[in-house]
């Protein structure tokens, strides 16, 4: 009987402590809305040190990260959230912030890794669009334009009402301008540059007009697409190729992204100019 009483007392104390901590947390959030940041931070830091309740702590850590004026300290809090509470909704926000932090730091490989993590989580359509947009931006800044276009096109296909729809359309236009500016004179419908040894073949035709139609279809989507003429036994076939890669591994990585985005049969080919 005494043991049962002690258990009940413990439960009541836990409830009282949680209720008190919840009141403090709500008070901190109210102070944030009133722009009384120092007072809010004081309460949040106290909860961070004393609370054992994950329901409160995830919000506490996220607020402390968002309110910090030191980007490195913010990143530390966001990483703590991801490590300790990987499945919380606050962690999804933390991953977005980390991706943006590394994007701003010009660490585009890291920023991509965080945005890709977000896309594997159960998230709202809006957060998905946001993650896709920043992922595409990261690819753009890393000059991986073909991959960037794939993710910008995902946004355009999925939601025309999204605030990221117009931004993505504009981004593809900007990429087209960059690519057109860099184009060299074309010989036999391809740019001769032997540093790029591999491409992704999306079609081959005996009829040149069929090849041109497929080229036009994917060119309108913003892809780096071109035609290679192959002569064999006095006959000419026309291969429609997307992308140019110096390494086969890079071509394979892009192939996986492209297949998921477009859902068509395609494969890596060696470019024999």
Molecular structure report:
With 273 residues, this protein is of the alpha+beta class. Helix content is 66%, strand content 11%. Mean pLDDT is 81; it is low at 5-17 and 184-193.
CATH C-level of the largest domain: Mainly Alpha
Q: Which spans of ≥5 residues are poorly predicted at pLDDT below 50?
A: 5-17, 184-193
Could you give a short account of the major beta sheet? 4 strands, antiparallel
CATH superfamily membership of the largest domain, which one?
Answer: Tetratricopeptide repeat domain
Tell me the radius of gyration: 26 Å
Question: Between the first and last Cα atoms, what is the distance in angstroms?
Answer: 88 Å
- Tally of strands: 4
In the sheet with the most strands, the strands line up as: 2-3-1-4
Class inferred from helices and paired strands: alpha+beta
Number of helices: 11
Bulk shape: elongated
Helix content: 55-70%
**What is the strand content?**
5-15%
Question: SSE order in H/E notation?
Answer: HHHHHHHHHEHEEHE
Number of domains: 2
CATH T-level fold name of the largest domain? Serine Threonine Protein Phosphatase 5, Tetratricopeptide repeat
Instruction: Based on the coordinates given, report the CATH architecture of the largest domain.
Output: Alpha Horseshoe
Task: State mean pLDDT (0 to 100 scale).
Answer: 81
């Amino acid at each position: 009987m005494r043991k049962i009483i002690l258990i009940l007392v413990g439960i009541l104390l836990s409830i009282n402590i949680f209720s008190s901590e919840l009141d403090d947390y709500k008070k901190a959030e109210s102070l944030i809305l009133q722009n009384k940041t120092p007072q809010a931070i004081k309460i949040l830091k106290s909860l961070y040190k004393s609370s054992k309740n994950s329901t409160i702590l995830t919000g506490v850590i996220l607020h402390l990260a968002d309110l910090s004026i030191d980007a490195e300290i913010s990143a530390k809090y966001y990483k703590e959230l991801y490590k300790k509470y990987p499945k919380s909704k606050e962690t999804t926000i933390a991953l977005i912030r980390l991706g943006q932090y590394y994007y701003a730091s010009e660490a585009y490989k890291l920023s991509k890794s965080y945005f890709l993590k977000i896309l594997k989580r159960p998230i709202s359509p809006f957060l998905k669009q946001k993650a896709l947009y920043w992922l595409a931006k990261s690819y753009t800044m890393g000059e991986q334009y073909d991959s960037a276009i794939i993710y910008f096109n995902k946004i355009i296909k999925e939601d025309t009402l999204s605030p990221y729809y117009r931004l993505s359309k504009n981004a593809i236009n900007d990429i087209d301008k960059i690519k057109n500016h860099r184009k060299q004179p074309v010989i036999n419908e391809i740019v001769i540059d032997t540093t790029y040894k591999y491409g992704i073949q999306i079609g081959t035709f005996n009829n040149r007009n069929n090849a041109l139609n497929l080229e036009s279809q994917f060119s309108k989507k913003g892809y780096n697409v071109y035609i290679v003429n192959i002569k064999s036994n006095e006959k000419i076939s026309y291969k429609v190729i997307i992308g140019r890669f110096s390494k086969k591994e890079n071509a394979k990585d892009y192939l996986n992204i492209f297949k998921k985005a477009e859902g068509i049969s395609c494969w890596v080919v060696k470019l024999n100019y």
